[in-house]
Automatic annotation (TrEMBL):
Residues in AAA+ ATPase domain copies: 97-230
InterPro entries in UniProt: AAA+_ATPase, DNAC/IstB-like, IstB, IstB_ATP-bd, P-loop_NTPase
Protein's organism: Kaistella jeonii
Single GO MF annotation: ATP binding
Gene3D superfamilies: P-loop containing nucleotide triphosphate hydrolases
Protein name: ATP-binding protein
Keywords linked to the UniProt accession: ATP-binding, Nucleotide-binding
GO biological process: DNA replication
ATP-binding as UniProt keyword: yes
Pfam assignment, any one: IstB_IS21
Lineage top rank: taxon: Bacteria
Length: 247
């Protein structure tokens, strides 16, 4: 008698409700609920299913380079990483306030992992996020200028509530990339958040950007409302390698 109902739920794409209803019938637990409780259980199951699908879709669209999460972050004292600050940032209030996060430190100390973990957390909280390797983004936007799709690409980036610019500063910016960065940051000023990771200390970004007037304009917008994390310590990659060897 319940088969038509189960089929209709699936056809209507009520997947959470479909699974919960089918499971309750097969396990014989329908009699354990009052009518109100049963309806509430089905609605909760559907809500959870849609919520989880939204998060999965958001994470997929962000195109993260790898997986990371707040729970796995190493807060050893030698890393100069404030646990309270990181956990506060993980609440994503910085996105609501259009604030930026600037993460610096030497190679392998976990800058990209931390930036990505905060990006994952923003996805979980329902924000639209995009991850970019900075050099690859600049190369892509140069090609977009050549084929006439530049403004369309900028518009897609602007629609994101958080963008991650990973490995900023590996190369000094040429005049075209300098203007591109200015347009990216200017579009996001008071309209979105930027997470930047870099091997170069923030005070060295002026030299990376070049041309003082443009560097001032970019960094004034980027630094003005920002949280700065300067990671220290030994390379986490080397440490993971040692641990594997010991095991």
């Amino acid at each position: 008698m319940n088969e038509p109902t189960v089929t209709k739920m699936k056809q209507m794409k009520l997947y959470g409700m479909h699974h919960a209803f089918k499971t309750a019938i097969e396990s014989g637990k329908t009699d354990h609920y009052t009518l109100d409780e049963f309806i509430s259980m089905l609605i909760d199951a559907e809500w959870d299913e849609r919520h989880n699908r939204r998060i999965e879709r958001s994470i997929k669209n962000a195109r993260f380079h790898y997986k990371s999460n707040i729970e796995s972050i190493n807060f050893e004292q030698s890393r100069n990483l404030d646990r309270n600050l990181v956990l506060r940032l993980a609440g994503c209030e910085f996105v609501e306030k259009n604030e930026n996060i600037l993460i610096t430190g030497s190679t392998g100390v976990g800058k990209s992992y931390l930036g990505t973990a905060l990006g994952y957390q923003a996805c979980i909280e329902g924000f639209k996020v995009s991850y970019f390797n900075t050099n690859k983004l600049f190369a892509k936007l140069k090609m977009a200028k050549a084929d006439g799709s530049y403004l369309r690409e900028l518009d897609k980036i602007q629609r994101q509530e958080v963008i991650i610019l990973d490995d900023f500063g590996l190369q000094a910016l040429d005049s075209q990339n300098r203007i591109t960065l200015l347009e990216l940051i200017e579009d996001r000023h008071n309209n979105g958040s930027v997470i930047v990771t870099s091997q170069i200390p923030v005070q060295g970004w002026y030299d990376i950007i070049g041309e003082k007037t443009i560097a001032d304009a970019i960094l004034d917008r980027l630094i003005h409302q920002s949280h700065r994390l300067e990671l220290k310590g030994k390379s986490m990659r080397k440490k993971r390698g040692i641990n594997r060897a010991e095991n």
